[in-house]
TrEMBL record:
PANTHER family (UniProt xref): ESTER CYCLASE, POLYKETIDE CYCLASE SNOAL-LIKE DOMAIN
Pfam families named among the record's database cross-references: SnoaL
Domain of life where this protein originates: Bacteria
Protein source organism: Thalassococcus arenae
Protein name: Ester cyclase
């Protein structure tokens, strides 16, 4: 029997390859990364999001790394699917102001889909346009970590997983988030994150968006992301999530926005001015039953940079 995860994944493949919108409910709406933001109605989603991508990438198709589903444990409830994917093809025509490279491109994205009666009623997607610019030789942010295409899970079992306990996995993530929220302002350390009994595996891999990049082990995570982020936003408050669920050894969480903060330290090459900011966040995790081994992180850094007063040349609608 094909479960709801398989049905939605197959529907999305038809949507992107052939423009078949049957997987979308008539009154579906989408919250998309900057510069698209809110798009309401199936036809508007087709016209403003899907059609421009299909026109810009010759041979456009999806390469999913993770595809999971489950019941949302947050108050908003609902049945959801979530995935990490790349939209892949030859970038041959302009996309939202970005001049094409005429070469192969991987536009990565994190996606959440609320499912009703076998169709998608609500969409949340963070696609990484700054990384697409990087692939075209026009990196908009200073380099911090290692910039790379997101890899599939080391265990190669992230598509419709069948192994593991989703309730236990999201329990690990809930505990980690609760403890990560509080940190020592002098060292940036939070209790319970590392060590033999910590939430994170010694050889954890953390995969981040353009402007952060990816890193290895907790020390790499601190060096390439956590230290500079806490310096810039020491009062950041997270956890405003509309969705959290576990599926096997995987879990997904997202907030739109998740973080609120004030800008108190220079960041992304811009000088701090104390203004209030928000950040849209998606996190996808693989655990081994006890600790977090891999974390794929999609952040809407185009929207954050816009709020900071920055201008990314070449992006606009």
């Amino acid at each position: 029997m094909i479960d709801f995860r398989s049905e939605i994944r197959l529907g999305l493949d038809r949507l992107w390859r052939h423009g078949d919108a049957g997987v979308l409910a008539d009154r579906a709406f989408a919250d998309l990364a900057w510069p698209l933001n809110r798009v309401e109605g199936r036809q508007a989603i087709l016209d403003r999001f899907i059609a421009p991508l299909r026109a810009a990438f010759t041979g456009l198709h999806r390469r999913d790394l993770l595809f999971i589903g489950g019941r949302n444990i947050r108050e908003t409830g609902g049945t959801w699917c979530a995935c990490v994917t790349h939209y892949v093809g030859t970038f041959t025509a302009p996309l939202w102001g970005i001049a094409p490279s005429t070469h192969l491109a991987f536009l990565r994205a994190g996606e959440f889909y609320r499912v009703e009666n076998g169709r998608i009623a609500e969409i949340k997607i963070i696609f990484d346009l700054p990384d697409l610019l990087r692939q075209c030789g026009r990196m908009p942010f200073p380099r911090i970590g290692t910039e790379l295409a997101f890899p599939a899970p080391a265990t190669q079992d992230g598509l419709l997983p069948t192994i593991g306990n989703g309730d236990a996995t999201i329990g690990i993530i809930n505990g980690m988030i609760a403890d990560l929220h509080v940190y020592d302002p002098k060292t940036g350390a939070s209790k319970g994150q590392t060590g033999t009994d910590g939430y994170w595996h010694e050889d954890m891999m953390w995969y981040g968006p353009a402007g952060i990049g990816s890193n290895f082990r907790w020390d790499g995570f601190v060096q390439d992301h956590r230290a500079s982020f806490l310096n810039a936003f020491p009062d950041r408050r997270g956890g405003n999530h509309y969705c959290r669920f576990g599926d096997g050894n995987y879990a997904a969480i997202s907030g739109w926005p998740s973080m609120t903060m004030t800008w108190q330290g220079d960041y992304l090459g811009l000088e701090a001015d104390g203004r209030a900011l928000t950040l849209r966040v998606m996190d996808f995790y693989r655990c081994d039953g006890r600790q977090i081994c891999e974390n794929w992180v999609c952040l809407d850094y185009g929207d954050l940079y816009r709020q900071m007063g920055g201008v990314i040349d070449g992006i606009g609608i």
